[in-house]
Amino acid sequence: MVRYIIKRFIVSIITVWILVTLTFFLVRALPGDPFLSEKITPEIKANMMRYYGLDKPLPVQYATYMSNLLKGDMGYSLRYKNRTVNAIIADAFPASAELGIRSLIFSVTVGLILGIIAALNHNKGWDYASMVIAVIGVSVPSFIVGALIQYLFGIKWKILPVAQWKSFAHTIMPTFALGLGTLALIARLMRTSMLEVVGQDYIKTAKAKGLSPFQVTVKHQIRNAILPVVTVMGPLVATLLTGTFVVEQIFAIPGLGRHYVLSIQNLDYTMVMGLTIFYGAFLVFMNFLVDIAYGLVDPRIRVGK
Amino acid sequence: MRRSLKLMLAMLLVLSMVLTACGPKAPAQEPTPGEEPAAGEKVLRFAIGAEPPALDQQIATDTYAIMLGNHLYEGLVRVHDGQIQPGMAESWEISDDGLVYTFHLRDALWSDGKPVTAHDFEYAIKRLLDPATASEYAYQGYYVKNGEAYNKGEITDPSMIGVKALDDKTLEITLENPTGYFLSLTNFISLFPVRKDFVEAQGQAYASEPDKILYNGPFILTEWIHEASLVLEKNPNYWNKDAIKIDRVEIAIVSDSNTAMGMYEAGDLDFVAIPAARVQEFVDKGEAKFYYDGAEFYFQFNVNGKTPQTGKFLGNANFRKALGFAVDRQNFVDAVLKNGSDPATRYVLPLLSGVNDTFAKEYPYEFYPKNADVEKAKELLNKALEEIGATADQIPTFEYLTDDSDTARTSAEAIQDMLKRNLGINIEIKQVPFKQRLELMTAEDYDIVFAGWGPDYDDPLTYLDLWVIGGGNNDTGWEDQTYTDMINYIRTASDLKARADKMFEAEKYLLENGPIVPIYFRRRAWTHVDGLTGLVRNFIGADPDFTYADITR
């Protein structure tokens, strides 16, 4: 188990390094440069390029960047000129993470419940009801859900605050808008998986042993059926926790989401790099956790003791 | 099955408890939506579209930082509603040749209680021009003698720059050329004072947090939650604090204009921009107001063309004008933009100052009609074809470069339709991100681009001098000595009337021969709550200006 973890850890580090290197060169290959603007003169731009070390050859820039990165320093943003990338991410991540955790709890619990109810009542009213919710959740994009509930609950009925990130009441609508799609995904996944498992021999065996329907469902059916859900959890957690542009935009949440889009638009190299590293490392780490979780959850997978 | 259903119910219960356990973080002081702030204190609430990237006086470039800077800091003068008022300078003298300005500073304090001195201005201007500061707006200091040379590294001795604190209260600025609008330029953030000891103590983190800034303006920043909100409070040390009526300003950072509108409708904001789709609704209710934001949009032609084939046509002035007469500007602003913008029938923005009144009032002019003049357009096209020696079926398809937003798409399609219908000319729309568009323009890799420009200072020259030979933004290939000579005369002329006459002449010459066809002057729609007074919308510099605003609820 320890050897497995170490091996996986080394692979993760290499993955992140490749990602950093690729992004470093790709973002610089984009047309334009960070200081391109309508009013800038060539001399002033050259001055700024020199100040930020962007006039040096690419390999030199890369070496400087990597050596700073190893010290944990991702540099100053080229747009938010008085703030470091580290500080910007540290400021924005908590809001994204909080929203992500809330919508994760909401979507996973409700999604699993819906999926299980649907599977246990296959082809009955409950099944259809759950799946209607799931289909709506998958097919209606979050910006429509967000705008709709914002209009109804915020503007028309004035029950909840329209936008911003201040109190618990401010979090309800964005949590719902962000979580609905994931909820639907999990519900459908869980339902399919439950239905697949129910035909397996070990379920028949369990029933033949005379176990109660409750024990069959919880110990054998759900435990085996939950595996595909665990598989998608890694990327899902990473996506939800590191911010989403649309929901953050609609509800004016100071999260990471808008930085993904804006840093590319502004060609803010250091910010693009910082976000890539942050998101990449987070994603790789979550997948790493999922791999380990497999060993714990799946009765068929036992990583060497 | 029964038991599993019970289990589900139990899980649902647990879930609901988990969710509520996440609990409110700040239950007591949080105002519920629509609730008015406490009586007595005058609070102004509004939204801005993005986080100000920097509040450092010499680094800031964006519109929100300029707006905030106008309220947190104060320069030598304060420009309010187009009028120059004394600011940190109580009085000033200008030498007869218009080159030397002597400012006499009043007794004013920084927010830490120390006096604002002439040395703070001298330091600020030298800091702006220092190549090591790498200021994007360094050119705002090029009016000062030797400023440009120092910034470009041609001279290295900062004492040669034309700014000098004669004593703590007297500042002398020497200019490169007589510049009639220099006084109002000192109201621009780049020339605002900073204090050496404080800036150096903060290093690169200067002005990144409220406690890393020194204030000398009517307000101080007391809270800055990055990307979320800012709170300003009245500055008790401000010299003119009795004229300031607002006690507290709460600014939300909201990038989605529909969300900001929602917050306004829920009673969370006191004024707001109206999203394009809802302008008509507010006009019908009689609640819409409009203001020019200074931006003008025009066709910019590459007179050499992207290919020799297109260049043959685009290099002909009559051909370019034909396109100009084929565009129905009124229809374009009414049906496509729907934001109250003005059709541009001339080149100079109607609000810019002339000698005593606005330039547009002193020199009224209409080169292009508001509606398309198809007759005239066809006449010009035929003339052009004759000059070029080509026939109508030889006209190639032109590339029309524009931004990648949705509105740019619909605008471009409307133009495409008008040119096709009125002249039979085809354009192919090419949408690219903003920065890529600028790069393609610099490389002169386009046929026609839909470009815009906002004024740097209150004088028609800010638009006119773009198109001189060798001008940094003249990416058109149009090199006209007559025009350049006119601009050079305007740049150094000290007789204001003769200068203005020459600007009018240059404008007419440009419309007749130049590489641009003006399309519209942008206006923006906004609305506010009853009881808000004294808020000024500006087309240049800081907008909005709430310095002397008042609100009664």
What portion of residues of chain B is helical?
Answer: 25-40%
Query: In angstroms, what separates the terminal alpha carbons of chain B?
Result: 61 Å
| Spans where pLDDT lies below 50 across 5 or more residues of chain B | 1-35
Question: Which ranges of chain A are low-confidence, i.e. pLDDT below 50, for 5 or more consecutive residues?
Answer: none
Q: What is the string of SSEs of chain A from the N terminus onward?
A: HHHHHHHHHHHHH
CATH-derived topology of the largest domain in chain B: D-Maltodextrin-Binding Protein, domain 2
The percentage of residues in β strands of chain A lies in under 5%
Q: What's the story with the biggest beta sheet of chain B? A: 7 strands, mixed
What fraction of the residues of chain B are assigned to beta strands by DSSP? 15-25%
Query: Could you say what the CATH architecture of the largest domain in chain B is?
Result: 3-Layer(aba) Sandwich
Shape of chain B: globular
Kindly report the greatest chain-chain contact and the residue count on each side: A-B, 72 and 70 residues
The total of helices of chain A stands at: 13
Find the structural class of chain A using helix and strand composition: mainly alpha
Q: How many domains of chain B, as an integer?
A: 2
Name the CATH superfamily assignment of the domain at 102-257 in chain A: MetI-like
How many strand elements of chain A? Answer: 0
CATH superfamily of the largest domain in chain B: Periplasmic binding protein-like II
Which word captures the global form of chain A?
A: flat
What is the chains' assembly state?
Answer: heterodimer
Level of helix content of chain A? over 70%
